[in-house]
Amino acid sequence: MEVYLDNNATTMVDPEVFKAMEPFFCTIYGNPNSLHKFGAGTHPKMVEALNYLYEGINAADEDDIIITANATESNNTVIKGVWVDKILNGNKNHIITSEVEHPSITAVCKFLETQGVSVTYLTVNEEGILDAQQVKDAIREDTALVSIMWANNETGKIFPIAEIGAVCKEAGIPFHTDATQAIGKVPVNVQACNVTYLSFSAHKFHGPKGVGGLYVQKGYELTPLLHGGEQMGGHRAGTVDVASMVGMGLAMHLATKPEALEFENTEVKRLRDKLEDAILELPETVVIGGKDNRTPNTTLISIRGVEGESMLWDMNQKTIGASTGSACASEDLEANPVMNAFGSDSELAHTGVRFSLSRFTTEEQIDYAIEVIKNAVKRLRTISSSYAYTPKHHVSEL
């Protein structure tokens, strides 16, 4: 049996989405910017896709949604655009973010620091979150942007976006959130949360890879990351991938319907909890960040005495896919930075395994995964030169 439990890295394309995309490869293939009927033939489905995107995040009609290649491009567009507009060409020189952001945020901020920009990296508590007061306390007169993710890609922890948005609105500072891991798992409402910019990727909610979006609130402009033609109203040059745009729109629609979100927060959560509880029956195991305030599909579990990479190897031999954290950092063998940020000790920081489910995960798959995982832990602990179980270190005391 094959079991895919790495849906925070990417998801399978929903078959309904794939079917909707097919005509745009060989039948309705015109360039949407061309004036002839071949180009115009793409427009109805593009409009429908945009409407789905607006509805999915409750954007207002006068706001913009720019089609990008992925959330990484969207994140870069926001931060580098603010750098050009507010820092190089303005009187601001400060950005606020958190220490557990996706690498497409932290790497850009580290780059901007080499250019003289001041960046504040807010710390998270032992539960892996921060509060709006930390943001308020960090704001300075020269703060140009606050960028805090909606939900963490490794732990699933949900941040207080509405409260942070209110703080930023009161201070008159643009607020960006990377909602890549939130869409399709929890309700996302840009108007209610006072969001200025929001990033997302289609492949995280059963859409195609290679396409994403950037929401921009009315009244805010950004210097484009890509210059060239006048596509996307001049905000992002390059011929639009119509098939992917159509797929992303439908995927957004399917993932954000009330009944879909209800399924995530009941059935997907139930299966996640079943897997999690079974692993926690093993001694010296712990959910990083705790069980509260998470997306319903995600758990990051530390298994003392078992290297995360070794655990993945054993599971892979039994055709189960999981992760030690962000796929974007999977080649980095250093201790998990998110677990370090939570205050995990050096040994524990190497033992985290992330399991992330989807609406296509079945009970049979979870039952099989539980059996394999328990056997793998037993085997790996038996051959470990450093692990020796003692009751005083049981999970209840960690």
From TrEMBL:
* Record-level Gene Ontology MF annotations: 2 iron, 2 sulfur cluster binding; cysteine desulfurase activity; metal ion binding
- Among the record's GO biological process terms, what is one? cysteine metabolic process
Q: Which reaction does it catalyse?
A: (sulfur carrier)-H + L-cysteine = (sulfur carrier)-SH + L-alanine
Q: What cofactor(s) does the depicted protein rely on? A: pyridoxal 5'-phosphate
Query: Is Nuclease included in the keywords of this UniProt record?
Result: no
Known EC number: 2.8.1.7
* Record keywords, A-Z: 2Fe-2S, Iron, Iron-sulfur, Metal-binding, Pyridoxal phosphate, Transferase
All copies of the Aminotransferase class V domain together span 3-368
This molecule's function is given as:
Catalyzes the removal of elemental sulfur atoms from cysteine to produce alanine. Seems to participate in the biosynthesis of the nitrogenase metalloclusters by providing the inorganic sulfur required for the Fe-S core formation.
* UniProt similarity note: Belongs to the class-V pyridoxal-phosphate-dependent aminotransferase family. NifS/IscS subfamily.
What name does this protein carry? cysteine desulfurase
The major lineage groups are: Bacteria, Pseudomonadati, Campylobacterota, Epsilonproteobacteria, Campylobacterales
